[in-house]
Amino acid sequence: MADIPTPEELGAQAFAGAERERIAQLRLSDEAPTESKVAHLFVEAHQGAIAYCPEQSRWYTRKDTHSALWTMDVTNHVGTLVAEHVDRLSARYDPKHARTMQRAAFVNGVEALAKRDRRIILEVPAMDAAEHVIGTPGGVYDLRTVVRLEDFSGVLTKSTACSPSFDEPGLWLQLLEDWCESAELRELLWRLAGYWASGSTREQTAAIIHGPAGTGKSSFCNAVLKVLGDYGMVAPVEMFLTTGMREHPTMLACLRGARLALVHEIPAGARFNESLFKSVVAGDPLAARYMRGDYFKFDPCVKVVFSANHLPGMTAHESMRRRILVLPFTRMVSRAARQKDLQARLTEEGPRILGWILQGARRWYAGGLPVVHAVDEASERYFEDADVIGAWLDDCLDLGPNHFAASRDLYKSWSDWAREHGERIGTQKALSNRLKERGYSAGRNSTGDVRGFRGLLVR
């Protein structure tokens, strides 16, 4: 049999032709075709254009064998390729064998065996593993230098919505001046947008862009989200806020590879799902699965951003403080100044906005996030208002080095106060943990028969 060119030599458009040529050269055989042999031929013909991820139970495809970008097959394209492959191959056999091959069970068996072929296995840890690069329709860019990489050999499954342009985004810069009180806040937003585009979570910080309606916060967030394309997602409110329902593992699966998760409009009175929120912000490993798929583990690289009129409540005050930045959007845009075609104009300027984001990433990699006094003040006000434990301590307890309060008395006082103020009571153990986080020491009274906390006295 003559050698057939490999897919890499032929290019993506020649895959089908190479497969037909290979099949045409097969000799008729009295030996019955097996699913294993047909699967081996299928992988041989399409290797380089298809891959299978067993952890996700998903096929991936790419249009160009020289491209780093792989796309999840959500249209069953690979299943169609398998069926077409079997159909063409069956023409080389006698009618009896052909009928066997064209049965659904045979075709499904070929696909199942192809999924196990090590030549096309794609593993989750290999996907989008380089935190400092970003895929675009025009190529792969290094975010540290904003240089297009000609020889990137990694695996990308995400792409921005457009290729970047590094011309000045005039409209965008004017809007930032309208929305932001200071140049310092604009610089912080610039670097934050660049950080959101990266695969890093080293800041371990989520942003709440807070302000009344008409201040531009939604327009800012939506424009950034749109140009980031596959790297961005709109997260349901219930993912990071408590709803009384446990998050479904398929909800977490969409975080794999995402770099920006935008949550629109926090309902009044909503509270953080603190356990999941802290895990995601810190980049702790998560377990998730797709519908009807097996569980897989991944390290999230997503940054959570809230665009909100209302600020969510919390209980774990001290442990949440370092994970949240509140960015105040307080400038009201007058009705006369609002542009009816703003979204269309921002879409047109999308490539330049993406270029601005990539330049912001370079600035963030070089110098981190700047300290902005207005952001520190807004964040501190938020924590003071959200500090329900602090409010209870002020209202119901006296502090002093010689004081001691029994745990049961503290919990009763807290329960009464929380019930009166509409706060979640929780367990006595949870209250003890909150007090320990604030530096209060647990112990026993002078006689040693009562557990409690030193330095506190219930009024």
Strand order of the largest sheet: 8-9-12-7-13
The tally of strands reads 16
Largest sheet: 5 strands, parallel
N-end to C-end Cα span: 93 Å
Average pLDDT, to the nearest integer? 86
Low-confidence stretches: 1-15, 24-28
Helix-residue proportion: 40-55%
The shape, in one word, is globular
Structural class: alpha/beta
Q: Which band does the percent of strand residues land in?
A: 15-25%
Radius of gyration: 29 Å
Continuous helix count: 19
Can you offer a commentary on this structure?
By secondary structure, the protein is α/β, with parallel strands linked by helices. It is 42% helix and 16% strand. The protein has 19 helices and 16 strands. It has helices at residues 7-10, 15-24, 35-46, 77-90, 95-101, 104-114, 170-179, 183-197, 217-228, 237-240, 249-253, 274-282, 317-321, 342-348, 350-367, 373-386, 388-396, 407-421, 428-437, and strands at 50-53, 58-61, 71-72, 133-136, 139-142, 147-149, 206-210, 232-234, 260-264, 286-288, 296-298, 303-308, 324-328, 397-406, 442-444, 451-458. The chain has a five-stranded parallel sheet with strand order 8-9-12-7-13. Helix 9 (217-228) packs across helix 15. The longest helix is centred in the C-terminal third of the chain and has 18 residues, at 350-367.
